[in-house]
Specification:
Number of domains of chain B: 1
CATH superfamily of the largest domain in chain A: P-loop containing nucleotide triphosphate hydrolases
Strand content of chain B: under 5%
Order of helices and strands of chain B: HHHHHHEHEEHHHHEHHH
Number of helices of chain B: 14
Largest sheet of chain B: 2 strands, antiparallel
Shape of chain A: globular
Helix content of chain B: over 70%
Number of helices of chain A: 18
Helix content of chain A: 25-40%
Largest sheet of chain A: 6 strands, mixed
Strand order of the largest sheet of chain A: 6-9-10-3-11-12
Radius of gyration of chain B: 20 Å
Distance between the termini of chain B: 12 Å
Largest interface: A-B, 40 and 29 residues
Radius of gyration of chain A: 25 Å
Structural class of chain A: alpha/beta
CATH topology of the largest domain in chain A: Rossmann fold
Shape of chain B: globular
Distance between the termini of chain A: 36 Å
Number of strands of chain A: 22
Strand content of chain A: 15-25%
CATH class of chain B: Mainly Alpha
Structural class of chain B: mainly alpha
CATH architecture of chain B: Orthogonal Bundle
CATH architecture of the largest domain in chain A: 3-Layer(aba) Sandwich
CATH class of the largest domain in chain A: Alpha Beta
Oligomer: heterodimer
Chain lengths: 499, 327
C-alpha cells in the first residue's frame, strides 16, 4: 500500500502538506512524529475517515478512493485506535465477528460466529474464552480482541495507534510477539508510538512526519540512531519567534507553590513554584497528567497530600468557586467548545459569566454593564466580533479562545492556567496569541502554560517542567534556543527509565 | 472566504432568531383565517374572551416546563402538581374556611415546595430528572385524591371567582395575570444573574462548572420555579372555573411540553424563549377554537397538535444542524 502527496487542510490549519507513506508487505512500519505533526490526520485518511484534499492512495498498484471507513476495511485496512471500540455487553465472539456476522434464515449463526472468533484468536496465538463478555476483559485483552476483529475482516494492513499506552511492560511484550507473528504472516503492521525504545525493538522501517510532511519515508530503521530520529522529529529549521524579553523578580513571593502534592487522579510528589510575571511551562505527551493537575488546582479533582500555597498562604481549594473568587485562579481550557464557551449565548454573557455576582445590582444585571466589559477586552485581546450580542458559536476558533481568556481576565485572576492555547489555530493568530500571553505575564499575571506544542513552549515559557506518567521528570531553564531546549525536553520524555 | 462567512452568519442569525417571528406570523394568519371563515364569529366579545380566558393556564404550564428544559431537565409532575395546588386551594377555602388570599398563598408555597423537593432529589440522588419527576408525578397524582377523594369543590370565595372570571377592558383578568407572569420570567432570564446562571448550566454544564457556577443550584432553582409556576396555574384554574376536583391536571402534561418545544426551546437546555412559548400556546389554543367553530371531531385536535409538535421538533433539529456547522 502506498499513499502519495497527501494534503489535508482544516480551517486555518494545514494538517498534512504532502505526506507520503509507503508500506511493504511483511514489515512492521513505525509512524513517528511529535504532537501535531499530522499522524492522526494521516491515519484518518488512510482508514477512510477523512478524504484528502490532494494526493492518492494506491493498493497493490491500483488507485483507491475511500468514501468512508467501511471502504477502507473492504480494501483490507484495519485500525486499532487508542481508545477502545468494543461493545462491552457483547461477548468476545460477538465483538470479533461483528462485521462478518453470518445468518441463517435471519438468525445469527452463533456456531459460525464462535468459529470465526476462535480462528482469529488462534492466528494471534491468544488463549481467550470467546463467550466472555467484553466488559470482563483487561485493557490488554481488549486490545487483542480488537486486533482479532481486524483479522476477521481480513485486514492486510493493520494500524495500531499508541497500542502500549495503557499496558504493563509484560503485556506490551506479548503484544509485540503478536505483532511479529502478523508480520511473519505477510501482513503490514503500522505502529504509531511515542516510545522510541519500543519502536527500535519491533519496527523494520520508519516514516517520520514533521509539520505535515514526511521527512523520512519508509526508510529501514536500522540506518538510524535514536538521536537521528529525534532530530528528524523535532527538526532544526524552526525560526525562533522572538518576543520582548521579560524579567521575573526571583525574590517575589510565589503566586503559586506546590510542595509534594499528590492527587486523586494519580499525581505524586509534584512540587513547583510559579512567581508573578512568570510563564511556567508544563510539557508532556498526551495522557501524562498535565490537564488533570490543572483540574486539581481548580478544585475539580481532589488533592490527597502535600501543600498548595497561594501568595505564600496555605490554600484549600474545594471547588471552582473557591479557586476563582478566593484565590483568583482561572483555567483557560483546552477544549473550548466543550468546556470554555457557551456557544448559544451572546459574547457579552460569555465574558461576564464569572462576574455576574459583581455586576449585578439587587440580582439584576444590566446589559450595558456587560457590554462595557466586553468592549474593554475587544481592544486588549484583539477580539473580532460584530458586537457584544453576537452568538459565541458564530466566532472563529481563535476568537472563541480569546473569549474564553477574556472571561478570566474579567474575573481579575492573578494566576492563569492556560491549557493548549493554540490548538487548531492558524499560524498568524497563533503568533498574536503568543504575544498576548507574554503581555499578560509582563503585566504581572502568573501563568502556568500547558502545551503539547514544543515550539510554542520554547517561545513562551521561562522555565519548562516535563511531566511523564503523572510525575515531574525534570526542569529546563528555557533560553529560547529551540535546538538545545527541544532536544533536552525530548530526551526527558523519551528517557528509557520506563516506570 | 469572508463572503461565505458572512453569508453563513446571516443565515444562522436569522434561523436562530426567526422562531418567534414565524410563530407570530402563523398566529396572525391562523387568527385571520379563522375569523374570516367563521363570518366574524370569532370576533364577538364572548368568543374572544373565551379564547384568552382558556389561554392563561396552558401558557403558564408551558412556561413551567420551559424553565426546567432550560437547564436540560424535564418535569413530568407539572400537570398533576397544578391539579394538586388547585385542589388544596379549594380545600383550604371550603373545608378549613381560610380566606382566599391565604389559600392562594398556601397553594403557591406548596408548588414551590414540591418543585424544590424535585430539584433536591435530582441533585442529591443523581437520578435522572425524568425518573425523579415520573415518581413524584405518581405520588402527587395519588395525593390529589387523598385531599378530598373524587368530590368536587364549589361555592368558594365569590370574590376570587369574580376576579378569575372578570375582565379589564374586555381582556380576561387571568390572561393579564399570565402575561405578567411571562413578563417577570422574561426579566428573570434576561436580566437576573440567577436566570443567566441557569441558562449557562443548561447550555454547557462543563463550562459553567469551570466558570464557578454551581450546576446543582441551577437545577434546584429551575425545579423550584417550575413548581411555583404550576402553583400559579393551579390558582388560575380555581379562580376561573368556579369548581375543581381531583382530576384536574391529568391532561396538562403533554401541552406543557408542546408549547415550549414549538416555541423554539432547546430540549437539550441552554435556550429558552418566553415569547415563543406563549405564542405556541396561543397557536394550540387556536386549533382548539377552530375545532369548536367548525365542529371538528375532537379526536382530530390531538392529531393536529401532535403533528405540529413533531414538525416543530424536526425544524429545531434542522436548525441546530445549521448552527452546529458554524466555525
Amino acid at each position: 500500500m502506498t499513499a502519495e502527496g497527501l494534503v489535508k487542510v482544516f480551517p486555518g490549519v494545514r494538517a498534512l502538506d504532502g505526506a507520503n507513506l509507503r508500506l511493504e508487505a511483511g514489515t512492521v512500519h513505525a509512524l513517528l512524529g511529535e504532537n501535531g505533526a499530522g499522524k492522526s490526520t494521516l491515519i484518518k485518511i488512510v482508514t477512510g475517515v477523512y478524504r484528502p484534499d490532494a494526493g492518492r492512495i494506491l493498493i497493490a498498484g491500483a488507485e483507491r478512493h475511500f468514501s468512508g471507513p467501511l471502504d477502507a476495511q473492504h480494501a483490507g485496512i484495519g485500525v486499532v485506535h487508542q481508545e477502545r471500540n468494543l461493545i462491552p455487553a457483547f461477548s468476545v465472539a460477538e465483538n470479533i465477528a461483528l462485521q462478518v456476522v453470518r445468518s441463517r434464515f435471519g438468525f445469527v449463526d452463533r456456531a459460525a460466529m464462535r468459529d470465526t472468533a476462535r480462528d482469529c484468536l488462534a492466528q494471534l496465538d491468544v488463549d481467550l474464552r470467546v463467550d466472555r463478555p467484553a466488559s470482563d476483559l483487561s485493557v490488554a485483552q481488549l486490545q487483542l480482541v480488537e486486533i482479532a476483529k481486524a483479522l476477521a475482516v481480513e485486514s492486510r494492513v493493520l494500524l495500531l495507534d499508541e497500542p502500549t499506552a495503557s499496558l504493563t511492560p509484560e503485556e506490551s511484550e506479548h503484544l509485540f510477539a503478536v505483532v511479529r507473528r502478523l508480520r511473519d504472516q505477510g501482513r503490514v503492521v503500522v505502529l504509531v508510538s511515542h516510545k522510541l525504545e519500543e519502536v527500535f525493538a519491533v519496527a523494520d522501517t520508519v516514516t517520520v512526519l514533521r509539520d505535515g510532511r514526511s521527512v523520512a519515508e519508509g526508510a529501514p530503521l536500522a540506518g538510524y540512531t535514536r538521536g537521528e530520529i529525534v532530530d528528524l522529529m523535532v527538526g532544526r529549521a524552526h525560526a525562533d519567534i522572538s518576543l520582548a524579553a521579560r524579567t521575573v523578580d526571583e525574590t517575589a513571593v510565589p503566586a503559586l507553590e506546590l510542595v509534594d502534592v499528590a492527587t486523586a487522579s494519580g499525581h505524586r510528589d509534584i512540587s513547583l513554584t510559579l512567581r508573578p510575571g512568570e510563564i511556567l511551562g508544563l510539557y508532556g505527551l498526551v495522557g501524562a497528567g498535565r490537564s488533570e493537575l490543572a483540574r486539581a488546582l481548580l478544585g475539580l479533582d481532589r488533592i490527597t497530600a502535600g501543600t498548595v500555597r497561594v501568595h505564600g498562604a496555605v490554600a484549600r481549594i474545594r471547588n471552582v468557586g473557591d479557586a476563582l473568587h478566593r484565590y483568583r485562579i482561572g483555567y483557560v481550557t483546552e477544549n473550548r467548545k466543550e468546556e470554555g464557551v457557551f456557544l448559544q449565548q451572546p459574547v457579552s454573557r460569555n465574558v461576564a459569566v464569572t462576574v455576574w455576582r459583581r455586576l449585578a445590582r439587587h440580582g439584576v444585571v444590566r446589559d450595558r454593564a456587560e457590554d462595557e466589559l466586553v468592549n474593554t477586552y475587544v481592544d486588549q485581546l484583539g477580539l473580532r466580533i460584530s458586537g457584544p450580542r453576537q452568538l459565541a458559536g458564530q466566532l472563529s476558533g481563535g476568537n472563541q479562545q480569546k473569549l474564553s481568556l477574556a472571561k478570566w481576565l474579567a474575573a481579575d485572576c492573578d494566576i492563569l492556567v492556560i491549557d493548549e492555547p493554540t490548538v487548531g489555530i492558524d499560524v498568524r493568530t497563533k503568533a498574536a496569541f503568543h504575544e498576548l500571553i507574554a503581555g499578560l505575564a509582563t503585566s504581572g499575571l502568573a501563568i502556568l502554560l500547558i502545551s503539547s506544542d514544543l515550539p510554542e513552549m520554547v517561545t513562551l515559557a521561562d522555565r519548562i517542567l516535563v511531566m511523564r506518567d503523572h510525575a515531574i521528570t525534570g526542569e529546563i531553564d528555557n533560553d529560547h534556543r529551540y535546538d538545545t531546549v527541544s532536544q533536552a525536553v525530548i530526551r526527558l520524555i523519551h528517557s528509557d527509565t520506563a516506570a | 472566504m469572508t463572503v461565505l462567512e458572512r453569508f453563513d452568519r446571516a443565515t444562522i442569525q436569522t434561523s436562530l432568531r426567526s422562531t418567534e417571528f414565524t410563530l407570530a406570523v402563523l398566529a396572525a394568519v391562523g387568527f385571520t383565517v379563522l375569523a374570516s371563515t367563521t363570518h366574524g364569529n370569532l370576533l364577538t366579545a364572548d368568543t374572544l374572551k373565551a379564547l384568552f380566558q382558556f389561554l392563561a393556564v396552558p401558557m403558564v404550564i408551558g412556561l413551567a416546563q420551559m424553565v426546567v428544559l432550560g437547564v436540560g431537565q424535564m418535569n413530568l409532575s407539572v400537570g398533576v402538581l397544578t391539579g394538586f395546588c388547585s385542589v388544596i386551594t379549594a380545600y383550604l377555602m371550603v373545608q378549613s374556611g381560610w380566606p382566599a388570599w391565604l389559600a392562594v398563598l398556601a397553594a403557591l408555597v406548596v408548588g414551590l415546595g414540591v418543585g424544590t423537593v424535585n430539584g433536591l432529589l435530582v441533585v442529591l440522588t443523581r437520578i435522572n430528572g425524568f425518573i425523579v419527576t415520573l415518581a413524584t408525578m405518581t405520588i402527587i397524582s395519588g395525593l390529589r385524591y387523598g385531599v378530598h377523594g373524587t368530590a368536587t369543590f364549589q361555592n368558594y370565595s365569590p370574590q376570587l371567582v369574580r376576579l378569575g372570571q372578570g375582565s379589564v377592558l374586555g381582556v380576561p383578568a387571568i390572561f393579564i395575570g399570565a402575561v405578567i407572569v411571562a413578563g417577570l420570567l422574561a426579566v428573570f432570564f434576561r436580566r437576573m444573574s440567577a436566570g443567566r446562571r441557569l441558562l449557562a448550566s443548561g447550555g454547557n454544564p462543563l463550562a459553567a462548572r469551570l466558570s464557578g457556577i454551581s450546576n446543582d443550584r441551577s437545577i434546584v432553582i429551575a425545579h423550584a420555579l417550575s413548581g411555583l409556576l404550576a402553583g400559579v396555574a393551579g390558582v388560575f384554574i380555581v379562580a376561573s372555573s368556579g369548581s375543581v376536583n381531583a382530576s384536574i391536571g391529568d391532561d396538562l402534561l403533554l401541552p406543557s411540553f408542546a408549547a415550549p418545544i414549538i416555541g423554539g426551546v432547546a430540549l437539550a437546555g441552554g435556550v429558552v424563549s418566553v415569547l415563543g412559548t406563549c405564542l405556541a400556546a396561543f397557536l394550540i389554543r387556536l386549533v382548539d377554537v377552530a375545532q369548536a367553530q367548525y365542529g371538528i371531531n375532537p379526536r382530530w385536535v390531538d392529531l393536529i397538535v401532535g403533528a405540529v409538535v413533531l414538525g416543530a421538533v424536526l425544524i429545531s433539529q434542522l436548525r441546530s444542524r445549521v448552527s452546529g456547522g458554524s466555525p
